[in-house]
Amino acid sequence: MTGTKLTEAPSPLFGYAARKHMGQSIVVVDAFAEQPFTGNPAAVCVMAQPRDVQWMQLVAREMNLSETAFLSPEGDAFRLRWYTPTVEVDLCGHATMASAHVLWESGLLPTTVEARFQTRSGLLTARRSGDGIVMDFPTAEAQACEAPPGLTEALGAPIGYTAKNAFDYLVELGSETIVRKLRPDFLRLAALPTRGVMVTSRSDDPAFDFVSRFFAPAFGIPEDPVTGSAHCCLGPHWSSRMGKSDLVGHQVSERGGIVRVQVRGERVLLGGNAITMMRGALST
Q: Across the strands, what pairs with 171?
């Protein structure tokens, strides 16, 4: 993408994102999905120019998905912002994957060109790898800590190792069965001073290294189906536990999703598949 400004040839973007007779285009993509109706759905708006914060928040609330992504051209990249139904967030994996997928599928970027995103977490990139997508994200390692008051009661299960990074708590549970059967108290979880809580254990299935679930009720997401940003923490955590740098995580939410993780020092490569589920247009 070096040497070519996106704004030098705007006609495909304007044709795709700003058709006056249709309104703003919006696409729903299942990210980290092996088949339709799995993984984590994200809505993606590719805009000809930035829109105001209130409008983006209202669209995200209307879509009522865990994340809605908004992109607009910025130099040789796209400005990318992510909104839950209630708040803007600093880092989101699945909506970044969905955004790259939409750019390639729509022809706004050739499939051979890396997608570059300027975000609140710095420059993020995504590239095609076979039929899948690989994203380059910063690590978000967690440091061991005492469990905060109320965490055990909120999860409703005995907790083991507990750690915290800038975003979330990480909690190891005793087995995959406990992770799967967990029925947390979302009101209590929402009162914790953090974006969310990831629970995890080793996987019983040899096809995967670890399993996880992710809860963020304080951000309007009781349970996130598949959480790319959590794997920026889970990857380094299980890499140190298992002595390997390439791992496969299975987020065992009701929808479920698979995240391939490669730990590379201060960066984490997150891999998965994306499937377009819906295309439409906003009326305003």
A: 162, 199
Residues 81, 148, single domain; the answer is no
Count: domains in the chain: 2
115 and 185 together in one domain: no
CATH of the domain at 82: 3.10.310.10
pLDDT digits (tens, 9 = 90+) for 37-71: 999 999 999 999 999 999 999 999 999 999 999 99
Question: Which candidate in 8, 34, 67, 176 is catalytic?
Answer: 67
Domain holding 254, by residue range, is: 143-265
pLDDT of residue 87: 95
Model pLDDT for residues 245-258, shown as the tens digit of each residue: 999 999 999 999 99
Residue 284 pLDDT level (bands cut at 50, 70, 90): confident
Short-list 281, 282, 238, 280, CA closest to 261 = 238
Residues 238 and 153 in one domain: yes
Do residues 74 and 155 both lie within one domain? no
d(CA 26, CA 56): 12
Cβ atoms of 250 and 208 closer than 8 Å: yes
> Does residue 8 carry a catalytic annotation?
no
State pLDDT tens for residues 76-130: 999 999 999 999 999 999 999 999 999 999 999 999 999 999 999 999 999 999 9
Residue 155 and residue 253: Cα distance in Å, rounded?
15
Same domain for 26 and 124, yes or no, is yes
d(CA 223, CA 101): 24
Instruction: State how far Cα 24 lies from the chain centre.
Output: 23
Per the confidence metrics, is the pTM higher than 0.85? yes
Residue 70, domain member (yes or no): yes
Cβ atoms 40, 97 nearer than 8 A: no
Length of the chain (residues):
284
276 found inside a domain: yes
Residue whose entry in the numeric block shows the structure tokens 């065992």: 252
